[in-house]
Write a structure and sequence with these properties.
The protein is 63% helix and 9% strand. By secondary structure, it is α+β, with helices and mostly antiparallel strands. α7 (195-203) packs across α8 and α11 (283-309) runs antiparallel to α12 (315-348). The chain is rod-shaped, with a radius of gyration of 51 Å.
Length: 351
């Protein structure tokens, strides 16, 4: 069980490393299109005004194995074989599982952008013409045999010294004598370097990083970054100094919140009592109470009259009781009728 768990753990780590490598490919390069997920990717770029594509294929053992890179269409370059495979790029030669696939591919594309290579079809046409001219000058005999393809370095990854002048005419003495050297305005430090120094610098990513760190724009960026870090620290300290005040205000808010809760509870109790009294003493409720009181007074008057008729009450007592009962009944009835009339008028007026 332990060995099986270790195998699963290694597989997970391997998948994570593979995904990180593919992420760097998308981070450091533009126009990355996915041909097959996790296996094949295509990157289009412009070189010398022509569109090229770099095809990246990843084997199942990647990143333990190197990626397979192929330029389409096939070009003439000392890094590229006749079939278009990129095999001699410095970053690819030294590729390990700890390399960045995106940086390696970006360096290859950058090489083709800075020094546009010639298409293989164009090179074959040029070589064929030169070979025919050579035969015609020598009476039909070829002096040097068939022309050597600049990609045909089967025994060494280093091309002949004459090939650099052929593939990169801007570095040849003939071209330099006819045109002024290109001067860099962004990185003036490059102007004082020789061709060999520039080649060594370009072939080593670590040297490029050291060179960039020593340039004035990068130093200015570092200085700006340090200033921002200092300001952020100052703002953070200022925020921390305000923490006691904020804590005190928070406590006051909590206390006031408790007071508010108590007042809210009291308000709800009083509001319920108010609603009860408002319903009880509303005009409609008073009118209904008066109607009930009138009926009660009439019933009391009738009871007094029955007692008198049955002889249970003398004349004087009957007159006093009956008169009081009828007076109360008429007063209540008058108030009820008047209030009902007022309510009807209010309803008619849409109150």
């Amino acid at each position: 069980m332990l060995n099986r768990s270790n195998i699963f753990l290694k597989t997970d780590n391997f998948s994570v490393e593979r995904k990180k490598q593919i992420d760097t490919l998308k981070i450091f390069n533009a126009n990355v299109s996915e041909v097959q997920e996790d296996v094949e990717y295509n990157i289009e770029f412009i070189s010398g005004g022509k569109t090229l594509a770099l095809n990246v294929k990843l084997s199942p053992e990647f990143p333990l194995e190197k990626p397979v890179l192929q330029v389409v269409p096939t070009v003439v370059h000392n890094w590229v074989t006749e079939s278009g495979l990129v095999t001699s790029a410095p970053g690819l030669l030294n590729f390990t599982r700890y390399s960045d696939l995106g940086r390696v591919v970006h360096a290859i594309i950058r090489e083709f952008e800075l020094r546009p290579p010639q298409f293989l079809s164009e090179e074959q046409s040029t070589s064929s013409t030169a070979h025919q001219n050579s035969i015609s000058r020598d009476g039909g005999q070829s002096v040097g045999g068939p022309p050597l393809s600049p990609n045909n370095f089967s025994y060494s990854t280093t091309p002949p010294s004459s090939y650099w002048d052929y593939a990169h005419p801007q570095g040849s003495n003939a071209t330099q004598s006819n045109s002024a050297p290109v001067q860099s305005t962004i990185f003036p430090e490059l102007n004082s370097m020789s061709i060999d120094e520039l080649k060594r610098l370009y072939s080593n990513i670590d040297r490029i990083d050291e060179f960039l760190e020593s340039t004035q724009p990068v130093r200015d960026l570092d200085r700006t970054k340090d200033d921002l870090i200092t300001k952020i620290e100052e703002v953070s300290k200022d925020n921390l100094s305000k923490e006691p005040v904020l804590d005190k205000l928070r406590e006051e808010i909590l206390e006031r919140q408790d007071v508010f809760s108590n007042l809210k509870s009291q308000f709800e109790v009083l509001n319920a009592e108010y609603q009860k009294l408002a319903d009880r003493f509303s005009p409609e409720s008073i009118c209904e109470s008066l109607q009930a009181a009138v009926i009660k007074s009439d019933e009391k008057s009738e009871a007094v009259a029955e007692m008198f008729l049955e002889g249970e009450m003398d004349v004087d007592a009957f007159l006093v009781a009956y008169e009081n009962s009828r007076t109360i009944s008429h007063c209540r009835k008058t108030k009820e009728e008047k209030l009902s009339h007022q309510l009807s008028e209010l309803k008619r007026a849409s109150y």
